[in-house]
Amino acid sequence: MEQKRKIGGERMNEDMISELPEALLLHILSSVPTKDVIATSVLSKRWRSLWKMVPNLKLYFNMEYYSSEDVYRLLNLHKAPVLESLHLSIEDKSARLDIGILIGIAFSRHVRELVLDHYREDETTVRFPSVLCSYNNTLEVLKLTHDFLLDFPSRVCFDALRELHLYHVQFKDEASVCNLLSGCPRLQDLVVERFSNFDVETYTIAVPSLQRLTIEEEYNISDVDGGGYVINAPSLKCLNIKGLCFNDVCLIENAPELVEAKIEDVSDVDNENILASLTSAKRLSFYFPLEIKYPIGTIFYQLVSLELHIQGTNGWNLFSFMLDSSPKLQSIKLDSQN
């Protein structure tokens, strides 16, 4: 914004935005698309290097925005002492070869939130550089989307990681799943979206610090029946499971602190174990479209709110069972489907 004012009988141009404190300018620029932030460098001498201190960057690898060489150069010019967040969207095939270098630069900048999106049409995976994961004490949020291959032959060390999102990534083997999750001692939020049994048969989630867990599977023509999940999370508070249509097992071994759970469309899973593992919850939402096995003698001592999606006789039998097993129940929501 520019306005004119009269000083000493002369009108002078005043760039009011440029007179704001640098900390406020950086805060404003943090919410502006990175390509526009960089474009501000031509405004004036003061703005020439200001973009280099912006703590949040979102960069696209494609012909319209940046090549991998451009991103490499921009990250090297960046001077903020801490990179609060870096979001890299990869469409350019050549960028796949440089992803390890770029992640290494981000880690050297003490990045706190790293978001990597890999869009491809040729079904080529990009290997996440496990060598960079041997020790990191600054990364707090990691989000990986589409066709990253996670191969961790040894345990990683993400000491500060609180939040992990894995959207349709591929693990090399079951050991890689365990080596990643066991190396996150402060992990509180885990989101897993995948195709059933696409990479590993048994997906073991053993995280003592975990408080919120979401598992969602999508249908895929190549899905093979069998396998499933083993969950050992003694601090878990919230659980959301959806779409386990090709799994035999969802074994919740240890979740005594569970407060809220939503279970939807787990038609082939041994759901007796699921019900029996939810007795500490205060709020439950169920959608079991097929036959349900009832854990005899189970009492939901803490349950106060129940939402049930009723389908056929089995659904009404579940409703009757829950009423008999929930002495503190106060609120019921029914969605009947015939």
Draw up the topology in text:
Elements: E1 2-7, E2 10-15, H1 22-29, H2 34-39, E3 56-61, H3 68-77, E4 85-90, H4 99-108, E5 113-118, E6 126-127, E7 141-145, E8 148-150, E9 163-167, E10 170-171, H5 174-181, E11 189-195, E12 202-206, E13 212-218, E14 228-232, E15 238-242, E16 249-254, E17 260-264, H6 271-276, E18 283-287, E19 305-311, H7 312-325, E20 331-337
Parallel strand pairs: 3-4, 4-5, 5-7, 6-8, 7-9, 8-10, 9-11, 11-13, 12-14, 13-15, 14-16, 15-17, 17-18, 18-19, 19-20
Antiparallel strand pairs: 1-2
Helix pairs in contact: 3-4
InterPro entries: F-box-like_dom_sf, F-box_AtFBL13-like, F-box_dom, FBL13/AtMIF1-like, LRR_dom_sf, LRR_FXL15/At3g58940/PEG3-like
Organism: Raphanus sativus
Domain F-box: 14-63
Protein traits:
alpha/beta; 2 domains; 3-stranded parallel β-sheet; 7 helices; elongated; LRR_FXL15/At3g58940/PEG3-like; F-box_AtFBL13-like; FBD-associated F-box protein At3g49020-like isoform X3; F-box_dom
